[in-house]
Amino acid sequence: MHTFLGLDLNIWWFLIFGGVISGYAILDGFDLGAGALHLFLKKEQSRRIALNAIGPVWDGNEVWLVIGGGALFAGFPVAYAAIFSAFYVPFMIFLVGIIWRAVAIEFRSKEPMGWWRKTWDIVYSFASITIALSLGLMLGNVAYGIPLNNGKEFSGDWLSFFNPFSILVAITTLALFMMHGAIYLTMKTENRLFAKLHILANNFIIFFVLSFVVTTLYTLLYIPHLSDFFKENPVGFIIPILMVLAIANIPRQIKKGKYRYAFISSSVTIALLLIMVALEVFPYLLYSNSDPANSITIDNAASSPKTMRILLIMALVGTPLVGIYTSFVFYTFKGKVKLDEMSY
Amino acid sequence: MDVEILARVQFAFTIAFHYIYPPMSIGLGLLLVIYEGLYLKTGDKKYEKIARFWIKIFALIFGIGVATGIIMEFEFGTNWATYSKYVGDIFGSALAAEGIFAFALESGFLGILIFGWNRVGPKVHFFSALMVFLGSMFSAVWIVVANSWQQTPAGYHIVGEGMNARAEITDFWAMVFNPSSVERLTHVWIGAFLAGAFLVLSVNAWYILKKKHLDIAIKSFKIALVVATLSSLAQLVAGHASADGVAKNQPAKLAALEGHYDTSAKADLYLIGHVNNKTQKVTGIGIPGGLSFLVYGNFTEPIKGLNAFPEADRPKQVNAIFQFYHIMVACGMSMILLTLLGCWFWYRKKLFDKRWLLWIFVWAVLLPQIANQAGWFAAEMGRQPWVVYGLLRTSDALSKSVTANQVMFSLILFLAVYMILFLLFLYLLNKKIQHGPVDYGTKESIDEGSKRDNPILDHQS
Fold first, then answer.
1. Which residues of A75-91 are buried (b: 16+ CB within 10 A; e: fewer)?
2. Cβ of B115 and A73 within 8 Å?
């Protein structure tokens, strides 16, 4: 067994990968949420402010997806190969969403015509919604498990990805991001737009809580094995309890006008949700529901211990660096959005 | 059509389209650092104006580069699952390093570069330009390292057999500095500088011809011409080093580049020609024994030909490889000629009167683009039938669970999306160029800002 600070290297990388994915969900989550609710804002000026609220940071946020992809490829190549070839169709749709979101943000401001901007607003919003839904759909299927053959490749029909559980997870993901995005925008806006976003944030909280409750009930009733971890480890119940507290804290802070705390709470909610999924699936990265023996675990998917050590060094050197310049960029653009000549 | 062909076409198409953009980002990045550096040093507002103008174009190029680049990172997993499992231990680390050390740096500071003019001082802004440029250079490092490892694997051993065989790292630095990475990286970097410099040359040549923005067009043209001249000359050296490496490490590829089949014969160096794949003969104009001379310094020394390799282990589309390679060389030589000519007339103080030459510069933006694309096609097709040279065949590298229909679906999807993207890109690029650089903080620019607010739309609820 190869360890670092007493912990197995593969577990280390699982934690780091989970951290990167949570970072992506928290950071790009508010961009995607802002995109998904974009069409709720009607005025040109409002839409520009909302767009410029994520303008300087969305690209940096998306980098977490790239790092996550690289982390999975490098640390667990077998899982990388299986997951992306299995989710071929939804993933291609996801990627097309990523393309259109990027270009819609970039192209929208380049022409003053109303039809031009409205078209890109629609593209931007639908691309964001597509990304959120397909991410949720894939997450749902990873949690639920998919059929794998003994070569550790997908052996089922891709239409089976659209099962009720995964669809519920997809909707919950979208709701979560919309809530998260609306709260982010309240921190960046003023006056009437701010008031509107305050109301929207409250509505999306309701949307999220509803879809979350339905998904949880469905899981408990129809997919009991997904709660095995919590049945066997009562201490683990602290996670869902913390999450309920974090969710409850969001409307509380919004009511008090402390939007920053509400944002932190919704970020914590995202992280805890992912931790819950991780605890439920661990040590599997991809559970085979046709024959559990074909499942992909953190051990049979892992790279060699030598590579794991190299990756850990990279993470140790790289994380503080990324932390420093991410904070610097967020610090530079702190406060309310001010439109200027270089804005979108 | 079978999955292999479709997957190869899709990869070639998506990577070729992607590769229009990153070289321009790297090259423009270098010029932005120079322009902002000059602004910082001289305080001349003209440099700021130049920098601001090119940053807007940089943002457009970078945006499409990012969007199309993310596709690449996941395409290994979607279409080439067996490959991913085989090389993940090595290739994956390079890709992860690119994400954390290069791309994060680049994208982080990009926000400040584009939107930070009123938020940070000129020094921090210059620093951001430098970081964005360095980030893009580092990106190239890791991507070229990963690709070079496929060309000349090193620092690994093979573990397991059959379906479970994979390459594992034994020596990280031997993997990074594999026999071809340094020379190929230099070649790629310089190719990128040329892509950026010729874009700037093209736009400014057009302004000068149209007598627009003359004061700043001439200034930025001259700087770009210096970068382009130095780069095109350096590329001669780097390109030669790269070809030398191919001769040493990938003899089958070298033979394909010149369509050389007969092992017992000296090899010719063609300027232009055509390889008949069936008769294994080249017709064209060239220097007899020229390749032998370049490799061994002797016009009669025989060079290992394609026939020395079993048919299953050597590239089949020899004529295509030959053509791509010669197109690249021809473009490279034209760039040297063109930039030297430009410098000569500049020295004679006649450069900006030579309208014919300026018109050539307007269209010469295509030269580095064609050279970059053709060079990569030659390099990648020349590696066939291997995806990892000598270790893993392209036909064995596919995702087994993905069907031809699925690949066809995504190929059509990408074709359609990229076609629209490319048209929009050209439209917006052209518009920005037509619009030209503007002064900031003046009446004009404020009018410009209010136009963007679009008051007509604001009256809707």
1. bbbbbbbbbbbbbbbbb
2. no
Compute the distance between CA of residue B384 and CA of residue A129 in angstroms, rounded to an integer.
41
Query: Is there a contact between A103 and B421 if contact means CB atoms under 8 Å apart?
Result: yes
Q: Please name the residues between 96 and 125 in chain B that touch chain A, using a CB distance below 8 Å.
A: 96-101, 103-105, 107-112, 114-120
Helix B45-79 and helix A77-86, axial crossing angle in degrees, nearest 10: 90
**ipTM, 2 dp:** 0.83
Q: Does B417 touch chain A (CB under 8 A)?
A: yes
Q: Is A318 on the interface with B (CB under 8 A)?
A: yes
The answer to whether residue A168 scores a pLDDT higher than 70 is yes
- Tell me which residue in B85, B172, B401 faces A77 most closely, judged by beta carbons: B85
d(CA B383, CA B307): 16
Mutation pick from B66, B168, B176, B428 vs chain A, by most beta carbons of A within 10 Å, is B66
pLDDT range class, residue A140, cuts 50, 70, 90: very high
Contact yes or no for A17/A161 (Cβ under 8 A): no
CA pair distance B305, A196, nearest whole angstrom: 73
Please tell me the predicted confidence (pLDDT) of residue B338.
Answer: 95
**Hey, is the C-beta of B451 within 8 angstroms of any chain A C-beta?**
yes
The pLDDT assigned to B454 comes to 41
- Contact, B8 vs B315, CB < 8 A? no
Burial of B326: CB neighbours in 10 Å, binned 0-12, 13-18, 19+: buried
From the centroid of its chain, how far is CA B400?
31
Nearest CB among A65, A77, A89 relative to B70 is that of A65
Please give the residue that has the higher pLDDT: either B328 or A333: B328
Position A100 scores a pLDDT of 92
Phi/psi of residue A50, each to 5°? -60, -40
CB B390 within 8 A of CB B253: no
> Which segments of chain B have a pLDDT < 50?
446, 449-461
Transcribe B71-134 into DSSP letters.
HHHHHHHHH-HHHHHHHIIIIIHHHHHIIIIIIHHHHHHHHHHHH-TTTS-HHHHHHHHHHHHH
In whole angstroms, give the CA distance from residue B64 to residue B72.
13
Look at B77 and A321 and tell me if their CB atoms are within 8 Å. no
Residue A11 clears pLDDT 80, i.e. is over it? yes
| Contact across the interface for B76 and A73, Cβ inside 8 Å | yes
pLDDT tens digits for range B373-414:
999 999 999 898 889 988 888 888 888 888 888 889 899 999
Contacts of A326 in chain B (CB under 8 A): 104, 108
Q: Is any Cβ of chain A less than 8 angstroms from the Cβ of B454?
A: yes
